[in-house]
Amino acid sequence: MAEVVIVESPAAAGALVADQIARLIAGRPDAVLGLATGSTPLPLYQALQTRLADVDVSQVRGFALDEYVGIDIEHPESYRSVITREVVEPLGLDPERIRVPNGSLDGIEHAGADYEAAIDAAGGIDLQILGIGTDGHIGFNEQGSSFASRTRIKTLTEQTRADNARFFDSIDDVPMHCITQGLGTILRARHLVLLAFGEGKAQAVAEAVEGPVSAFCPGSAIQLHEHVTVVVDEAAASRLKLADYYRHSYANKPAWQGL
Ligand code: GLP
Questions:
Q1: Cα angle 57-227-23, degrees, rounded to a multiple of 5
Q2: In CATH, what is the architecture of 3-252?
Q3: For the chain, which residues score pLDDT lower than 70?
Q4: Taking the domains of the chain in order of start, what are their residue ranges?
Q5: Is the minimum distance from the CB of 68 to ligand 1 under 6 angstroms?
Q6: 147 alpha carbon to ligand 1 midpoint, in Å?
């Protein structure tokens, strides 16, 4: 089962995961990180700024989860721009080593296969950071996504477009399509770290962690992975049936195990 860690705040979650990433980079300077966008990972990226301040990150590599299709790459809300602004620049990563799926219409037919080949060539992703949508999607794998799926084009649901409209002038400006790592791609990463905060994510977290493994909740794919850490605040944990067990288990975890 996924290890569930219930923390008191998003900042505490960020600090916890930042420590794990720092340990990873200390042991492997060219570690491959899977990078998520959205509001959820921001406390982690903030914590990493402090945690990695004195760490050589020049060799670190990264792959973003997803991108909008047809968006101008220079648009401030393209995931390329977001990853550059929120992760690459503040952490001082080498932009040449950070890839985002190519959502340009030119070559879109093979953009998914190209991205898969690039991940393979990097030796796979060591630690994949994940958020979760209110309907249980991870990356942009909407409900019904195949657990075997690889990086490909998807049509966004109206719910996801509405959720993401806050980043655009209106919902009409939110692209209709995206290119996203598949659930099968995500499951090949060596360690999955899913973050979720706030009451609005409680149902999705409960379904992903404790519900049936079903394409109806793409996040439930994490139950098939052997090394998953779910870090949530009290509000996002509020619908977990086994919350007391997760607290007990984490409180008694040997320190040497890390996350
Ligand atoms: C988008 C992203 C997902 C993210 C989700 C939740 O759909 N493609 O990767 O997990 O939003 O976003 P937030 O963290 O802002 O709630």
A1: 25
A2: 3-Layer(aba) Sandwich (3.40)
A3: none
A4: 3-252
A5: no
A6: 19
